[in-house]
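ok trying again, last paste got cut off:
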Amino acid sequence: MTHEPTTTDGPAYATLPPDGGAESPESKRNGLQGDAIGLVGATMLGIVIMGPALAVLFSWGYMIPSVGRSTAVLFIMGLALTLPTAYSYAAINRRMPSAGAIYKWASRLLSPTVGIAAGFCGVFFYGFIVAFTFPLQAQFVADLFRNSSPVLFAVIAVTTLLLALPLTYRGVSLGLKTAIIMTVIEVLIVVLVAAVAFFRSGTGQVSLEPLDPTRLPGLTTLMPALVLAFLAYTGYDAISTIAEETKAARSLIPKATILSAVAVGVFWVVISTVLSNALSPEAYQAALDEGGFPLGAAAEVAFGETGRVITDIMGMEATFALTLGAFIGSTRILYRMGRDGVLSERFGAVHSKFKTPWFSITAITAFVVIVDVVLAFYLSVSIDISLWVVNAVAFFSMSTYLLINVCNPLLFLRRYRTEFHWLWNGVIPMTGIAAVGWFFYKGFFDALWHVDGKLGRSTVWVCLTLLTAIVGVSALISRRPGVKEAARSEDSDDNVVTDNAR
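nice, full thing came through this time. structure:
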């Protein structure tokens, strides 16, 4: 529900319409579209950003050279290592849900400077996901038409952006519903491909080998595949950013966070088991050697030449769904920072009709265009843009996850000390820090540092430079009068409070 403020002065209530016209009485209400999302919608946002079909296409496929059939057990291990951080998100949201998410939590529990820097990291995290999707979309279309023209690649990327923006600007309900429908379709396509390939392959077998941990190789061989399994779960945390648009956020957001991670994990375990039993590892490896995807090999067994078309279409609509979901996560943090007055009040502006943070959406769009254009000149107009960006996503997601696990025990030690529990607020977040820290090192620093060229070590330097700039800018912003108090301010005017006061 919306909340009528006692005053409309100041950045906290900025709702400037994009056409610069006069504010209507409705536009003076408290920001975003309250009560727009229920448990299913919130859960699906996390699932959309984790990309269930894209993970099968990429993560599962590239696990095979390391572990053969034993892919399902890796998704179980990835889920087990993800749940501590997911629980930290849930625990914090149960006490202080906010569209600002990590920005508000770190500001209150650590310091405003750290919180502002964390907010920027969150924006970069989701913003880079959006930037990742457009070159990927273009690659799927290029593969569908067997045309590698850079001009076609650029046209498709721009067209995808132009299609996504109206859905993003016109409200969280429309954008999220569209993304959910497309995600359901992609899941059904993957299920169909896996089932038909299993029965048509002639070599399909009913075996628990994909679930058998004793068949896993040594740690050195296992690590690349385990990193893929862990990173596949990135994105469930975006649910936190829709707190002000969600019904009864204190109870719903924590449930949706855990449900999304578990639901998509179960899906990956089941599908990878079926696919690993449908064809031999050698057949999938042959597809990789030819520059294709193992899922494409299964689709070809299932539907012949049409299988390649089905895989490309699935990739296209799965990528578009990811675009819509990531736009939501990236813009809500900027919105909250603008509403608090930490950034320009325009970032907190909400469209008078659609109740969306239109200026923040525009800012993220500009960021995405700049990133993809700069990388196009640096790397060429190709899928290499997405490969570079996905490493940046890993960097900023891991940075955010580390802070979340620090905030969990601090919240209870400083504000709810009598409720502090050695397991839930001690062991679990420490396990989360250990897991995230390990994969941060192995999956980003160690993996890229030993790779020369534009997709390797240079990515590490760029991300570290960006982080240094973020810290410096955050320190300067926090020196402005009133900024520290604004960043630490409680959400007494948020929908999340009025919802839970009923």
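cool. Residues 306-340 form the longest helix (35 residues). The domain at 32-500 is CATH 1.20.1740.10 (Amino acid/polyamine transporter I).
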